[in-house]
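INTERNAL AUDIT FORM
Audit reference: QA-55
Scope: verify that the stored structure record matches its stored sequence.
Auditor: D.O.
Record contents follow.
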Amino acid sequence: MIRTIRTPMFLLGAVLVTACSTDSQTEEEVVTSMADGTVATSMSGDAANERGVALVRVVNAVPDLQRLTIRGDNMLELPAVDYKSVSPYQSIDQNWTRFEVSGAAGGAYAPIETNREMMSDGHRYTMFIVRDDDGAALSSRILRDDISSDSSKAHVRVIHAARGTDDINVIARGGESFFDGISYGSDAAYTDIDPWRGTLEFRAEDGNRQLVSLPELDLQAGTSYTIVLARKSAGTLEAFWFADTPTPR
């Protein structure tokens, strides 16, 4: 077992963002890639710091809501984001920002969730949008992205965004348990692991029953991975991922 996490992340609505590392400001540009082949490059943390901005992106983990739109103070609008997608990083020049989430992209803007966050210049953040515990409303939280520069390890975190699913363990098929006891609305913070390729299994902590798997996953050294467990509209579980890699100097 590497890490056990049980603290709710999303369920309280607006929460002050907390740093998971004091050195997560990158010196290099970062390339973000997804399983579908989508690739985006963002400026270095040093460049963002010099400009006096933070870098923010959005992940939509709500299967029945496409084209979610997020606005910040002064009508700043982040790119609309579909389910299982992550938007490119966008710079924000206000340390305190009030974010509003709307599902009415292209039409009348109707906020359905509001969150006020504090961010630091030069750092990267991801806003995760999920259903709240009752499923009737949305909830969001911004986490600081600790992009690793360690070229010998893969850097992995897991987000449990599958409402109605109890605590989970994340296991390398045929090998060790990477994370244990992740509850809904919680994140297993970045952990360094040896490079690994295979099938990742999500198992119920109670009884160790397999819930879903993520096959052909290739966790490479020098890359930071975010893996999200979600629940599709039909009620079945699925997992998706995206990866962040600092560009070589």
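Auditor finding: record pair retrieved intact. The helical segments are 45-51.
Action required: none
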